[in-house]
Design brief:
The chain has 14 helices and no strands. By secondary structure, it is mainly α. It starts with a helix and ends in a 7-residue tail after the last helix. The chain is globular and about 60 Å long. The protein has one domain.
Amino acid sequence: MTWIQAIILGIVEGITEFLPVSSTGHLTITEQLMGLPIDDAGVTAFTAVIQLGAIAAALWYFRADLIRLALAWFRGLRSRARRADPDYRFAWYVILGSLPIAVVGFLAKDLITGPLRSLWVVVAALVGWSFVMIGAERLGKRNRGESAVTLSDALVIGTMQVFALIPGVSRSGATISAGLLRDLDRVAATRISFLLGIPALTAAGAYEAATEAGAISTAVGWGPTLVATLTSLVVAYAAIAWLLRLVARRPISVFVPYRIGLAAVIAVLLATGTLTAV
């Protein structure tokens, strides 16, 4: 992988990680257009590792919230009286809501890095989940803020996050849709989507870095990997700020035409042989 390719992939990751358009799908397409072997273990691990840059951006953006929640959680563990703090409960919601994707991601690793890497899967998921996003906007009442979030909300949203393991669905698209279907307002659903994504994506990136270090070194190189990760950090920070401003005014279904259009372009490229499915 060249430095230019690494920067481009870092930009793609940073822009798409938190937007409901599927970062994995975009990275898979971009990598294949660059001639990179998307079924190679090193390239697959690279795709997961550079997500750490986007996660670092989320950590910095939400640092005040995360510090407050962490302090409340540790205080609650030491003191029964502190467990009445809403932040203590909310911290547990984030932890417990992150478990479903961690368990399924670990158990279905071979499926995720194998058959689900097909671009035909991306096409189907881009189209199929677009209808879920439209339905969430139409059915959700959006009359509950972040302070009204319950454990049931966190578990439902966290379970829905599992669908993001399918390239093309989009982690934020899955979790924000779930939040809307639980009648949360768009800003609350989006903020919870970000918070639930931090443990899951951090674990996935760290796991790939630890277990596939040799493959990354051979297939990609750690220099380009670090460059792509740092690039995604900078770009993702801007994307988070932009998305939070957007959802305060507009429905997430504004991304549906892009998703459908992208699916159509990929399908044409696959049908003409410009791209291969895997």
